[in-house]
Amino acid sequence: MIPHTFNDWVNCITKDCKVNLTKEFALQRLAVYQDKTHIETKNFISLYGEQHLNNIIQWYSQIQ
Asked: The pTM is what?
């Protein structure tokens, strides 16, 4: 399931994936996802699309 809201995404990351959404973690992920030349970002876009990438960037930004 691809989360479509911030709350759904937080629940998915923290409960399903067991990831602690710290400021440091969010900053690390933002560094990757804001770099469109990064291989992980290219793969993310090919799997989930630009709109979901933009959502993820916005949601990680809210964690800080």
From this structure: 0.91
